[in-house]
Write a structure and sequence with these properties.
By secondary structure, the protein is mostly helical. It has a single domain, classed as Up-down Bundle (Chorismate Mutase Domain, subunit A). Helix content is 78%, strand content 0%. The longest helix is centred in the first third of the chain and has 35 residues. The termini are far apart.
């Protein structure tokens, strides 16, 4: 028998809050890279949306999600929304 007790709801919520903070930090880092991509695309007359790349990213993320035990359909929804929002950002950056 072990003396360990199950974490409290408060402890679990604090852990979730910490994960959320880490996710936001990673998303901010990703956004910084998107800004650099927009500059590159503008300099090379590339469109904001490149469908082949979008599908490549979504498929990779779904495989990674499944491998980590995260529902791939949830990952797909999240990434498609994230990509759509980044395309809107890039389109604004690419506008004359």
């Amino acid at each position: 028998m072990t003396d360990e007790k199950a974490p409290s709801l408060t402890d679990l919520r604090q852990d979730i809050d910490a994960v959320d903070a880490a996710l936001v930090a990673l998303l901010a880092k990703r956004f910084g890279l998107v800004k650099q991509v927009a500059i590159y695309k503008k300099g090379h007359a590339l469109p904001a949306a490149i469908p082949e790349r979008i599908e490549e990213v979504v498929e990779r993320v779904c495989r990674a999600a499944a491998a980590q035990g995260f529902p791939p359909e949830t990952a797909e929804k999240l990434w498609r929304q994230l990509i759509a929002d980044m395309i809107v950002f890039e389109e604004k950056q690419l506008a004359p």
